[in-house]
Amino acid sequence: MSFDLHCHSVFSDGSTDIKSLLYAAKRAKLTGIAITDHDTFDGYYKALNLNKDYNLNLIQGIEISTIDKSRGKKAHILCYNPKDTSVLNGIISGITKMRFDAMKESIRILETKYPISFEMVMKNKKDATCIFKQHIMQCFLELGITNEIFGSFFKELFNSKNGFAYIDIDYPDTFDIINKVKSTGGKIVLAHPSEYSSMPLLYELCEKKLIDGIEAYHPRNREEDVKTIRELSEKYGLFLTGGTDFHGYYTSKPHPIGTFTTENETVNKFIL
257 with 24: CB under 8 angstroms? Predict the structure, then answer.
């Protein structure tokens, strides 16, 4: 039995509602899950109200978007079981506002070329605390302009170098966020180090003893990085996590919940 420690729902950039997510986790015979929506705890609170029907072990989590400013790269920080979430409220509301403003500008640009509108995107947004690119791409699926969320058309629109509708977001500094998260009493994990070429950052975080764990088992981690991650874990006494980074059908490759997991023993020892 094990936990999937990286799951997204309709409250951020996932396509799956909380009830369906819990049902799928139960059918996958998981001990529990962490709902780690981007920059919000709303999905976790909703799950608490519904979990009586599923009796899963729910872990409060969040994935915070940051920038490793010294290297100019994105980095995602996972926080588990914070004791004082009020410390993070101002941070995540600030990130949400920046993202919302950026997505509104992207939509304004896209309206000049394609038959989409802010209202159409908001319909897809539903319970999410912010607009995400997936909600915009859903419009293009509905209009028959593309048949996939992520692909060549997505890159044409949102590539960070020359995307037609890409708007940069000034996410907070990785190290500032880690210091803030430390003050919540939560456990800090660097998410998917291969995703944004975060291995140099990981070395620094390990040497400075700024994190508690590393997400080793993830669909987009490279095999050679996982080997290094295990070595760093042993050297610095960090725990290793696994998570599917579940987004439902808002994904480039299908990964059902429970595809990547963390053993009960690790969760019981380091997180619960």
Answer: yes
Contact 242, 219 (CB under 8 A): no
Question: 63, exposed or middle or buried, with CB in 10 Å at 0-12, 13-18, 19+?
Answer: buried
Is the pTM here over 0.90, yes or no?
Answer: yes
C-alpha–C-alpha distance, residues 235 and 237, integer Å: 6
Structure-token pair, residue 272: 């619960």
Name the burial class of residue 55, with classes exposed (0-12), middle (13-18) and buried (19+) by CB atoms within 10 angstroms of its CB.
exposed
Query: 207: burial class by Cβ within 10 Å (0-12, 13-18, 19+)?
Result: exposed
Residue whose entry in the numeric block shows the structure tokens 């799956």: 16
Mean pLDDT by groups of 10 residues along the chain of 272 residues: 96 98 98 98 97 97 97 97 93 97 98 98 97 98 97 97 96 97 96 97 98 98 98 98 98 95 96 88
**137-121-5-90 Cα dihedral, nearest 10 degrees:** 130
DSSP 8-class letter at 171: P
- Sign for the CA dihedral angle at 108, 74, 225, 245 comes to negative
Q: Which of 77, 29, 72 is nearest to 170 (CA)?
A: 72
